[in-house]
């Protein structure tokens, strides 16, 4: 098989891949290559035609495709190479990629690899809702793709299960395109999407949001005819007598994203059971030296700006690794404490300032985010509101870090 | 009057307490930044939204081009904007920022393309 060599190979051409390959090139990596399986760069942003992107890095709110175009232009300015319609099929710990395109299969040997494959959606199969298997059950991202890229309307009367952001965004889109969205059912006692999407996508249109509620059955043969909704108790058991039938021709699922880490597993990259993404240090380096991870494949992001910032850092690290063959070690462990679902990075070198990303376990008002190192408080900041839907970002200067040992992060009173 | 509102300027989505009378906003509490004031004022007296949608392209590499209003339009006119967009088609090529409809329904906002679409023969 034909083999080519590059300094930095980036897998996936969404906002993470775009920023990573451009920053690797700008940081001095000569031969860089971005590999995208789709026929266009931009990843999921191509179908996110709503606005609300860019408030952090650009200081204005623009749509997904516009945000993507800005970073495609930057890639072209930096003269970073890319290929489309090309799928990465295999990755080894030695950083050899096997790729497939219309021209056939080939190998790419890379000095460093950046994983930027994004996420896919959780499906009905993953939820195990009983009932027949009629047409008319879609995930929200598929509905978004059909409506925004292919001009296909999926149904007229819709029930949405799950209050993730994609589902909320599509509730508004479906309504404005003339469908009737009956309701959104969420099994948790609080919405899992951002507050602003609850306001602008549901409240604006009078779409009811039923919390602690789920779909227990799908009805219909051939096409969906309706669903059974039921309330759930504190231990997720169905409250008896709470079942009711709601007529609809479409059930749309917005029940979460799964980082697409099949390639990472092939390369032996260690994954976190909490995020489903790689375990990385402050260089965004995974457990396999020279393989880096960023964007939604690392952990699910609701704000693209943070994807860009993270990926730019990962791209710089990859360029540095490709040139030097190694990076300083990361002996300081970072652990989630009380009230924290996860915190990234998992370990740090202590060389430079670090921007930590963390998520709280439950929505709460007036909390403190507390960083402790070997018992001492090294940073404490107040948050008016915390919610699992909202990633918390905290930057710590290098002089705050211990030489070794552990840092724990808590969300407390 | 007094009420709890969610500031939707950015993803933080502060839950603020606001106080207002017939003509003006008097106080905003619990907001993390200054941007909440103008948003909450507009939310109370003249709520507006950016409308995004997509329209068919003739001769393009993909069948639809995404579009938006280049400034927010009154919330209760969103459906009118959508209805009027249902009649619109554009010719490829299209560039980001191209005006697709100028001053839609006289609301003072233009409809602009948000995606680049190449022409195919
Ligand atoms: C519906 C929706 C609404 C959102 N709304 C907002 C919002 O309003 N504001 C905001 O800031 N953020 C929003 N986000 C979040 C933001 O868009 C995402 O976090 C971001 O796009 C993730 O970027 P990524 O590059 O990691 O992944 P993606 O954009 O998913 O890109 C991954 C790319 O990798 C490619 N790929 C995967 N595997 C391979 C392989 N083996 N070989 C080759 N290529 C491969 C895929 O084809 C894809 O193009 C939203 C996200 C979604 C899904």
CATH architecture of the largest domain in chain A: 3-Layer(bba) Sandwich
Rg measurement of chain B, Å: 18 Å
Which CATH architecture of the largest domain in chain B would you pick? Answer: Roll
Strand order of the largest sheet of chain B: 8-5-6-10-9
Please write the CATH class name of the largest domain in chain B. Answer: Alpha Beta
Give the termini separation of chain A: 60 Å
Low-confidence regions of chain B: none
β-sheet strand percentage of chain B: 25-35%
Distance separating the two termini of chain B: 60 Å
Helix/strand order of chain B: EEEHEEEEHEEE
CATH fold description of the largest domain in chain B: CPE0013-like fold
Of all chain pairs, the largest interface belongs to: A-B, 33 and 32 residues
State the share of residues found in helices of chain B, binned by percent: 10-25%
Mean pLDDT score of chain B: 93
| Overall geometric form of chain A | globular
Number of helices of chain A: 8
Q: Into which percentage range does the β-strand content of chain A fall?
A: 25-35%
The total tally of domains of chain A equals 3
CATH superfamily of the largest domain in chain B: CPE0013-like
What oligomeric state best describes the polypeptide chains here? heterodimer
């Amino acid at each position: 098989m034909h083999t080519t060599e590059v300094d930095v190979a980036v897998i996936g051409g969404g906002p993470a891949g775009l920023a990573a390959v451009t920053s690797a090139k700008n940081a001095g990596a000569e031969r860089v290559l971005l590999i995208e399986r789709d026929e266009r760069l931009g990843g999921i942003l191509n179908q996110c035609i709503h606005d609300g992107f860019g408030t952090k890095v650009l200081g204005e709110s623009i749509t997904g495709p516009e945000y993507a175009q800005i970073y495609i232009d930057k890639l072209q300015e930096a003269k970073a190479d890319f290929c489309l319609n090309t799928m990465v099929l295999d990755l080894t710990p030695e950083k050899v990629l096997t790729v497939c395109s219309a021209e056939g299969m080939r190998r790419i040997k890379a000095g460093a690899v950046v994983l930027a494959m994004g996420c896919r959606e959780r499906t009905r199969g993953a939820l195990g809702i009983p009932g027949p298997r009629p047409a008319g059950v879609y995930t929200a991202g598929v509905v978004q793709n059909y409506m925004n890229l292919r001009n296909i309307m999926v149904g007229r009367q819709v029930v949405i299960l799950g209050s993730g952001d994609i589902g909320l965004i599509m509730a508004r889109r479906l309504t404005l395109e003339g469908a009737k969205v009956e309701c959104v059912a969420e099994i948790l006692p609080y919405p899992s999407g951002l507050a602003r999407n609850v306001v602008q996508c549901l409240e604006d249109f009078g779409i009811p949001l039923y919390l602690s509620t789920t779909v227990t059955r799908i009805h219909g043969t051939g096409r969906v005819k309706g669903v059974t909704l039921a309330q759930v108790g504190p231990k997720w058991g169905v409250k008896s007598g709470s079942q009711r039938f709601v007529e609809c021709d479409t059930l749309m699922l917005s029940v979460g994203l799964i980082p697409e880490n099949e390639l990472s597993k092939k390369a032996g990259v260690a994954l976190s059971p909490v995020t489903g993404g790689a375990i990385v240090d402050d260089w965004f380096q995974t457990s396999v030296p020279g393989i880096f991870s960023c964007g939604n494949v690392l952990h699910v992001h609701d704000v693209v700006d943070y994807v860009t910032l993270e990926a730019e850092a990962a791209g710089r690290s990859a360029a540095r690794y490709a040139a030097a063959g190694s990076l300083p070690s990361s002996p300081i462990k970072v652990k989630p404490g009380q009230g924290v679902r996860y915190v990234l990075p998992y370990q740090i070198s202590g060389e430079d300032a670090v921007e930590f990303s963390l998520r709280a376990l439950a929505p709460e008002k007036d909390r403190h985010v507390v960083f402790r190192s070997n018992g001492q408080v090294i940073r404490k900041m107040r948050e008016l509101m915390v919610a699992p839907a909202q990633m918390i970002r905290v930057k710590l200067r290098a002089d705050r870090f211990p030489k070794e040992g552990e840092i724990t992060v808590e969300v407390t009173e | 009057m007094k009420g709890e509102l969610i500031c939707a300027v950015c993803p933080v989505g502060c839950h603020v307490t606001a106080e207002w009378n017939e003509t003006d906003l008097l106080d905003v509490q619990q907001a993390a930044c200054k941007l909440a004031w103008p948003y909450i004022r507009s939310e109370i007296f003249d709520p507006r939204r950016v409308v995004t949608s997509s329209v068919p392209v003739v001769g393009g590499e993909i069948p639809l081009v995404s579009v938006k209003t280049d400034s927010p339009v009154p919330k209760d006119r969103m459906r009118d904007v959508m209805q009027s967009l249902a009649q619109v088609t554009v010719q490829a090529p299209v560039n980001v920022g191209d005006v697709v409809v100028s001053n839609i329904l006289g609301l003072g906002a233009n409809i602009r393309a948000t995606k680049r679409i190449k022409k195919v023969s």
